[in-house]
Structure formats: C-alpha cells, structure tokens
Write a structure and sequence with these properties.
Structural class: alpha/beta
Largest sheet: 7 strands, mixed
Order of helices and strands: HHEEHEHEHEEHEEE
Distance between the termini: 31 Å
Radius of gyration: 16 Å
Number of helices: 6
CATH architecture: 3-Layer(aba) Sandwich
Helix content: 25-40%
Shape: globular
CATH topology: Rossmann fold
C-alpha cells in the first residue's frame, strides 16, 4: 500500500536529497515515484523515508537514498538505454532505473535476494530481466550495455565489465575496500580508450565473486 502519508514522506525525502546537491530532476522525480517502504524489512519500515541505509536479507543493505540518487545521476540514464545492474539487492535501485525508462538487466549472486526482489517488484509492475549469477562476470551474452551500474564495492574495476560496455557508454562503480571507497565513473571513448573520474567517498558492501545459494 502506498498511502498519502507515504507520498508526503517521500516528497520530504526528495527535497532532502535535492538540498544535498542532486540536480537531475529526472532522477529526483523517478525516486519520488518509487515506494521505498515496500522494499524494506518490516522492522525498519517506519524509517523508510529517512536518508539512511538499512539492513535487508542475506547480510546486505538497501542503500541510502542519497547514494542511489548520486550513482544514478552519474550514470546519466535516458529512456530506452540498455542498463546492466550488478547487485539487484532489494530491487529498489532497479525500480529507479526502470522509472527512468531504461531496459534493465539485473544480476544478483545471493539466491535469497534474487527471489525476494522478484516478489517485491512484480506486484509494482516493474519488469527488469533477472539473472542469478556472478556479478564479476557480468552478462557477456547480452552485451554490449549502454550503462553499467555496480552497487557493491570492488577492489578494482572488473575487466569483464569494462569489456561489456558499449563505446560511448558509462560505468559507475564504488572502488576500494572496507577501509576506503571512491565512486568511480568510467566512460568508454573507443574500443581501447576509457576515461576515468573520481566522485567522492562512499561505503558499500563488498562485491563478491561466485554465486551464493
């Protein structure tokens, strides 16, 4: 259920995120349409519209809304772009990408989250293409992608993901370990040339290899 109260709280959250420097109105409007409380564990639902991360299943987290907005703004998503999301998690970021009109391919290594995200997103009429697998490997059979978004931190950017980025495409990933992570944006300028830029410090769960049943 998405009540008037929820919508009011969501509007306040969006104003809070805007005040912190997010300027892309399409991103803010998309987040304003996604009922975050439906992606939260019931014990945290009353805090759904505070700008904080919270635990979800399988020892993972639903990202802080500001962080979702920041990554999405860096990704520069436009309607009909083909987007690979590495780390479905709760499905909240997936929903934001879909609200922006992207065609979303999302991969999750935790089987519990892979199944739970589908149960959450389907009743809301969100229809990404789901994969249960190793995010380090990406989805080479479906490449290239216009955009790649990684929602967990890697010690270095996986080469397999760079290989799956289209020329002119953008990859956004937190890079580092638990002692320090930077948000990285990579633009593929040609087959062999990549332009990298750093965009501040963040804290994410680690990007792990393999699948977890």
């Amino acid at each position: 259920m998405d009540s008037y109260r929820h919508k009011g709280l969501r509007n306040k959250l969006i104003e809070d995120i805007r005040s912190k420097g997010i300027k892309n109105e399409n991103v803010l409007e998309a987040m304003g349409r996604v009922p975050r409380h439906l992606f939260m564990d019931s014990s945290f639902v009353n805090f759904s519209y505070t700008d904080k991360a919270f635990p979800i299943s399988a020892g993972q987290t639903i990202s802080q809304p500001y962080t979702v907005a920041f990554q999405t703004e860096l990704l520069d998503v436009k309607s009909h772009l083909k987007v690979l999301e590495v780390g479905t998690g709760s499905g909240y970021q997936t929903a934001v990408l879909l609200e922006l009109g992207a065609r979303v391919y999302t991969i999750e290594r935790q089987r519990q989250l892979f199944l739970e995200a589908q149960k959450t997103l389907a009743p809301l009429n969100y229809k990404p293409i789901y994969f249960y697998g190793d995010g380090y490997e990406g989805l080479p059979a479906y490449a290239p992608f216009d955009r790649i978004l990684v929602t967990a931190a890697a010690p270095e950017i996986p080469q397999r993901l760079l290989d799956q980025l289209s020329v002119g495409g953008i990859l956004v990933i937190p890079e580092g370990d638990r002692f320090g992570q930077k948000m990285i944006r990579v633009i593929r300028e040609s087959e062999d040339d990549f332009m990298r830029s750093e965009h501040g410090h963040f804290s994410f769960v680690p990007l792990l290899r393999g699948k977890n049943s």
